[in-house]
Amino acid sequence: MPGDLIVAHARIVTAEAVLTGSLAVAGGRIADLDRDESLPPGAVDFEGDYLLPGLVELHTDHLERHYTPRPGVRWPAVTAVMAHDAQVAAAGITTVFDALALVGGRNGEDRLETLRPMVDGIRQAQAGSMLRAEHFLHLRCEVTEANVLQLFEPFRDDPLVQFMSVMDHAPGHRQFADLAKYREIYKGMLGMTDEQIDAQTAERIAASRTHGVTNRDALAAIGRGRGLPIASHDDETVAHVEEAAALGMVVSEFPTTLTAARAAREHGLQILMGAPNLVRGGSHSGNVSAGELAREGLVDILSSDYVPVSLLHGAFTLADGEHGIGLPQALATVTINPARAAGLEDRGRIEPGLRADLLRVRLVDGVPVIRAVWREGERVA
């Protein structure tokens, strides 16, 4: 099995089964897969560790935490991207869609003043071969924002943009159907007074009524025109899902109820849920748990959302215990399924001819521990 990299004595997780054997990489691609249990010369002995495809992450807003580590602080964009990338790669993510929110700026700031440097930082770092994972952009479009189309415009034809979602975070529906929970979260997160929360609630509900439908329709048209996969965010009702399907959306991202998830399945939308929700055993917003949907067979894709290390942990959680769907199917939620949802057919599976984005993983007391990461056959973590 000649090649740039050979691994042996591995438990190889393919799309269909877990095999024991060897794998060879040549030219950044998987060249050969063999059930041979010998140790070829120069091979990396996996000693029975798992060999998995690199993880594909469709939605993480983690970059913004590195670019704005404190209120009012803007870190140099390239090194912020590098710090974010290092954490992502260490979590086994070899393809990441950095989710940037198209929302109004704080304290009157121009949101483009923060968006442009982050996008340029990704572009510069990627062009300079400074990154371990491959990065794309996922634009999260808040339809309650009067100027969301203006925020989208500078990135309309940017080749980094390969995914988009439409959101409506007005209280009283979707993520914040429970107004008491909305008040609790914002009082704790922003230290707002009751009067301030009341004013914000009224303002956001009015903005949703004024701009929501028009902006949603316009953004969906832009996405379809670009051929972008589009996700509907926080679907709560059958009507939300029907609207998404009619607008050509292909993913229901974080549905908040069992009813919405069932409707998404009926309408052919892929269902994306948060791995932190699954690992923690529930939603921090008080909505439907990912575990409940998984038991109903209603989870196609997992996203790490705000905790990169949760992605692999979530997949192994699905494969174990009450969910018991088996490792190949569980890992598909973080590899094959997100890759296909994003139109990336060259990765996400261990199969000859595909990209050699690979992980070495060992279970220690039931916790998946990443021991090595390769992207296109090159060791990156």
UniProtKB/TrEMBL annotation:
Gene3D superfamilies: Metal-dependent hydrolases (3.20.20.140), Urease, subunit C, domain 1 (2.30.40.10). InterPro entries: Amidohydro_3, Metal-dep_hydrolase_composite, Metal_Hydrolase, Metallo-dep_Hydrolase, PhnM. One of its GO terms (biological process) is organic phosphonate catabolic process. It comes from the Bacteria. GO terms for molecular function: hydrolase activity, acting on carbon-nitrogen (but not peptide) bonds. SUPFAM superfamilies: Composite domain of metallo-dependent hydrolases, Metallo-dependent hydrolases. Residues 89-360 form the Amidohydrolase domain. NCBIfam families: phosphono_phnM, PRK15446.1-2, PRK15446.1-4, PRK15446.1-5, PRK15446.2-3, PRK15446.2-6. This is Phosphonate metabolism protein PhnM. It comes from Inquilinus limosus.
